[in-house]
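re: that chain from earlier
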Amino acid sequence: MNRMFETAEACADFAIASLGKQIKLGAPLGLGKPVQLINAFFRRAVEDPEIDLHIYTALSLEVPKPSSHIEAELAGPIVERLFGDYEPLAYMEALRAGTLPPNIQISELYFKAGSMKGLPSAQQNYISSNYTHIARDMAAAGVNVLVQLVAARETETGLSLSLSCNPDVALDVIRQRRGGDQDAFLCFAQVHRDLPFMRHDAEVPAALFDGIVQNPAYNRTLFAVPNAAIPATDYATALHVSSLVVDGGTLQIGIGALGDAVAHACILRHRHNAAWRELVANLTRIDSDCTAEPSVFNEGLYVSTEMFVNGMMHLIEAGVVKRRVFDQLALQQGLNDGVITPAIDDAMLHYARDCGLMPCVLDEPALMELKDWGLLPAALVLVDEDLELDGTRLRNNMDDADTRALLLRAMEGSELRHGRVLHGGFFLGPRDFYQKLRDLDATGQDRICMTSVQRTNQLLLNYPLYSAQRRNARFINTGMMVSLSGAVTSDALEDGTVISGVGGQYNFVAMAHDLPGARSVLCIRSTRGSGKHLQSNIVPHYGHTTIPRHLRDIIVTEYGIADLRGQSDAEVIRRLIAVADSRFQQELADWAIEKGKLPEDYEIPAAARDNTPYRIASALSSHIADGLLPAYPFGTQLTPEELTLSASLRRIKALSEEPTQFLREIARALFHRGDKEAARPWLERIHLMHPDSSKEFIVQQLLMLELEEHGLLKVR
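^ sequence. v structure.
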């Protein structure tokens, strides 16, 4: 029987007393970390140097910290509003301060992008692993404590728990560590009242855990990731991507601005198809045979994804994600072939008989299974050798016309049960996303299944079924760079610096090559940096690879689609140059010609020579102005004033990296000298009405110039 703990400290003490002072603690990525419980283990190890604590986890969430006084003035109230009383992870604070004791080690399998670039300890202890291999690797490392944040509810049979945001790895770790002759292993749950209670695979009995921590004081603000602003270049990429998505197919997208942009582009395609077509037609692009029929989503999409993101909830609400799949191969195949629909009708009963799902004469197991799928009335029972429905006796013969007719009358208007529109491994997003999950009605709960990444990210558990469900899949992810060979760099730099992690990207790329009709779509921003620091993200070659060249498939930039699957090296190079920024195209071509990978008479196609940010801005500007492409399509918790200030300060910061232009703008700002009184609401918001230094005075003047040029201030 599991133990109940009122405090995290009591739970940690119990684990140490039971297992000894060598603790290898596994914790979920992202939202599923029970912060107070992890912090209790950390504090015990700080207090007792004899405790050897090794924490295995991924995506350690941190409240953002401003990098300057002015940023702090703007961000302070925003951070307080967004993150409330969220308790930080003590190990991350020590890691960043360089005060991590020698008896404590932190190994992450995935970083928040770019967050660990300057931390040698994090870089040295990083573990590179495919998402589907994490449970295996944690078991092999000897993880002897697993901790998990859970939702809870009382049922007729007692307390029931939900792994909620993170069933992705937990069940697999528990299965592997408790299977066979293993060392001592304990797992603990910490209950949070605001965590959405997700059903199906995520719902587990309380007895699964050795102990449960439940304390109202621990119900602090859940970490919520605010929606990011979507730049025009990401919208351009997303519009191209949305033209690849097949109605009746399968979708996977990631987090961040680009994922939100793809979701919004699919909604535009569905709700404003004519405008969407115009947007796609206006963009600089190279025609591709891999684009789909540009129709609305009549049949809709099914989602199989490692991460359930806010954009996917909006796709469900918009009626784009609505194709239900069923964990019964014969039914799924019949639906795919169009022989049946989810409706329980004569065609369905005939099909069930023909495929062997429904025997002629029912026994109790067959009756229970068919009722569970909704193929037979819930009130139907076996009585002796006959069937009985609401007091009426029927022949137990599914080929009997009278029996079938009565059953069909009883099932009129009903449909198959247990259809899912989404399978996801974990979720993370903004606060209103969590609220929507908490507010799901019975139908909404039934259609969403949080589950293991062993299901979402690969095919090995049930290749026939998952292949039938994931028809015409489009697995959409992002990369940092692509070489002219088609190899993609997504997780690290060539000097070994880890930027993020492999996560599930390799899994999805490999699955795209294994599934009939599936494609991997990797989105790459064509450039990075600005001014003299501007660089192409399409490069001749690179010293690190995440996705090898032999798995190259579809690459999308803001300038179009490069379909690389099955193409020769020369054609791959041609197609990548065609979607590169025009400022770098010739040098890429020259390199390929010099290396003998392109013929000497190669010329960049005329249709690709105007791949410039100006071209993108011109193509999208009218629809940005009319609101079809908003900066925050799924809303923001920032006020209009904060949005204006944050955008202006970002531009000023970027400007400061170009000394010549920066000096020119300072001179221009000092000459114009905007109206301080008109700017008072913005200046007071960040305490710049009366600057305390020459640096603050310069920022004040530049900010007023920014506000003026956006039509918010008048020139004196």
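The longest strand covers residues 145-155.
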